[in-house]
Amino acid sequence: MKWVLGIFAGLLLLVGVGAGAYFLGKSSSAPEGEAAATAAAVPDPATPAESATDAPAAEEEPQPPRKVEEALKPPNWPRFSIELASFRSLDNARSYQAEMARRDLKTEMVEIVDAAGHSWYHIRVGEFDDPRQAAARMPDVERKAGLFGIVVTEIRPAGTEAQ
């Protein structure tokens, strides 16, 4: 039985040393030889041979870089909100919404009908174009509301634009 524990301890030690070596190698920057090779591969833009061939292109005005997020967003991009609660009763949803208003949270009530035909009333905060924006705002909302919320997605109907 002792030899099994010895083998287990040895394997555990070996895994620990390997993981440490991996993370040390991962955290260090690129070696100098690699950086020099990268610098040599990228030509200097001020060399005379290139400046003569690029003269017509230099006369054009440089355009600002476009944001990748804007290019990836389709016209019917969903909106994101922070959902605090869901109720089956409209009265309960309204009283909860009034309580959130007393806590300086501007909320929106969204009615969704489930497959059985029952209405659910969701209390949501904010309207964000990106889930990261909603997640960044969530700690402040949770502090004011006194409970945890979740980021939810709502698909806009076709033909409507983001406001």
TrEMBL record:
Source species, please?
A: Caenispirillum bisanense
Task: State what protein this is by name.
Answer: Sporulation related domain-containing protein
Q: What is the lineage of its organism?
A: Bacteria, Pseudomonadati, Pseudomonadota, Alphaproteobacteria, Rhodospirillales
**GO MF annotation terms:** peptidoglycan binding
Q: Which Gene3D superfamilies match?
A: Sporulation related repeat
UniProt lists compositionally biased (Basic and acidic residues) regions at 63-72
- Per the record, the domain of life is Bacteria
Q: Where is the composition biased (Low complexity)?
A: 33-56
Q: Which PROSITE patterns match?
A: SPOR
Q: Which InterPro entries does this chain map to? A: SPOR-like_dom, SPOR-like_sf
Q: What residues does the SPOR domain cover?
A: 74-154
Q: Where is this region: Disordered?
A: 33-74
